Amino acid sequence: MYLVQILLPLADNDGVAFTREDFAQVRGELAERFGGITTFTRAPAEGVWTEVGGSRRDDLFVFEVMARDIDHAWWERYRAELERRFRQETLVVRSIKVDML
């Protein structure tokens, strides 16, 4: 079993906030495909990274789904679609192998 996490920014690089509908669409797509989803949206996570000339930060929502297998081709297409929709050069989509207890 795999836990897949998607980190989505609350706003684009110009500070324009995404709408509740933007996040609801992602939640609906993932719930339909994977049969369920967990979202962490009440207290946004904070991402910080270093770039030339300083550092940047994003407030993030975390979306998680469980999957038996990882369809890499599907995830690559979906990540690219989310990058387009959320106006990001790169989004973090990661999987973690988990053992169900």
How are the secondary structure elements laid out?
Layout: E1 2-9, H1 20-34, E2 38-51, E3 54-67, H2 72-85, E4 92-97
Antiparallel strand pairs: 1-3, 1-4, 2-3
Number of H- or I-type helical stretches = 2
How is the largest sheet built, in terms of strand order?
Answer: 2-3-1-4
Strand content: 35-45%
Q: Residue ranges: pLDDT <50 for 5 or more in a row?
A: none
Task: Describe it.
There is one protein chain. This protein has 101 residues and is an alpha+beta fold. It is built from two helices and four strands, in the order βαββαβ. A four-stranded antiparallel sheet has the order 2-3-1-4, with helices on one face. A hairpin with a 2-residue loop joins strand 2 and strand 3. The chain starts with a strand and ends with a strand. The model has no long low-confidence stretch (mean pLDDT 89).
Short description:
The chain is an alpha+beta fold. It contains 2 helices and 4 strands.
